[in-house]
Amino acid sequence: MNCRMIQGAKIVSTGSAIPSVRVDNEKMSSFVDTSDEWIFTRTGIKERRVLTDLDKSIIDLSIDASFEALKSINMHPSEIDLVILATSSPNDLFGSASKIQYEIGAINALAFDLTAACSGFVIGLVTAAQFIFTGAYKNVLVIGSDVLSKWVDWSDRSTCILFGDAAGAVILQSCNSSSNSILNFNLNTDGKYSNYLSIPYEESFDTHPILKLRQGCFKYISMNGKEVYKFAVSKVPLSIINSLTEINMSTKDIDWLLLHQANERIISAIADKLSISSDKIISNLSKYGNTSAASIPLALNEALKLKKISRNDIIVVAGFGAGLTWGTIVIRW
Ligand code: ACO
């Protein structure tokens, strides 16, 4: 990490929210040709939550997660200086963060969306840390929230079984630089392979008789599952090792490995490469599937509620996904 640090940053609070509707693998096999056995052995997923007409929207999930984080430290929303919403499924292409800022009453905060798919939360947290390290802001609310159910082709069994909807939030707060808990990060992009995972925009050229405009709409998630798998298992361990080595740490120092919850086989393969035992892995994928930008804060909030994480534990958090993007943050809790 190469930055001028005026003050340190630490996560002081977390929250999360999930839709009420639960779809288990058996239910999936009632509308696509699949089975609980196939899904569970290939992915580790048992069920996922999806936003339906019984729930409201991505904004409401994000608000619930944010209020949980605020309430747990009795922070008034007006104390928040910045709201970053990491999402690839906003309600508005101009951004959904400002609606959340208004609804939670963060009247003093700047708010913006950050689009980086399943790496969105990691990149959002690093972005928040930069504003704190430089002394610009004191309290930043980082939300990872996705409702990929609206971009999934529910007749495509190779993708629809993977994803679920959720929101997670953390509050990053300034502290003395000697107590800084964001120890290092490593972020990467390789746009050459962006077609491996995409929600493409499909244009038609005859939408205006004179101007021949390029207008269209977004289609469903398209994914080359095998290539995404190989990418994650090869690139993420290197990112983790680089971010540890730079601060004279090694994989032996890791107390908790918290990876983007995409697939149990990806998580285990990365842990094996790093020689990290399974009891150090934080995972709740079986209950929620791949919730994209929400997966890391959702799993972090749950692990904290289960009192798994202790003060001074080293948590290595890594995200990966469309872009392709991937990145690691080393945190001292
Ligand atoms: N149920 C039953 N059979 C299925 C299903 C299903 N849901 N999906 C595919 N199959 C079939 C295929 O048709 C194929 O059949 P065939 O051999 O007769 O052609 C067979 O199962 C094997 O299919 P593969 O695609 O080769 O299965 P694979 O072992 O690669 O597993 C999977 C697929 C689970 C998607 C895996 O490739 C994977 O997890 N990749 C990573 C995907 C991922 O994590 N994406 C999200 C990244 S994060 C983000 O940014 C959003």
Automatic annotation (TrEMBL):
The chain crosses the membrane at residues 314-331. Residues 261-265 are annotated as: ACP-binding. It comes from the Eukaryota. Pfam families: ACP_syn_III (PF08545), ACP_syn_III_C (PF08541). The keyword Amino-acid biosynthesis does not apply. The active site is at residues 118, 260, 290. Keywords: Acyltransferase, Chloroplast, Fatty acid biosynthesis, Fatty acid metabolism, Lipid biosynthesis, Lipid metabolism, Membrane, Multifunctional enzyme, Plastid, Transferase, Transmembrane, Transmembrane helix. Its EC number is 2.3.1.180. The keyword Lipid biosynthesis applies. Pathway: Lipid metabolism; fatty acid biosynthesis. Signal peptide: none annotated. It catalyses: malonyl-[ACP] + acetyl-CoA + H(+) = 3-oxobutanoyl-[ACP] + CO2 + CoA. One of its GO terms (molecular function) is 3-oxoacyl-[acyl-carrier-protein] synthase activity. GO terms for cellular component: chloroplast. Belongs to the thiolase-like superfamily. FabH family. Homodimer. This is Beta-ketoacyl-[acyl-carrier-protein] synthase III. It comes from Tolypiocladia glomerulata. The gene is fabH.
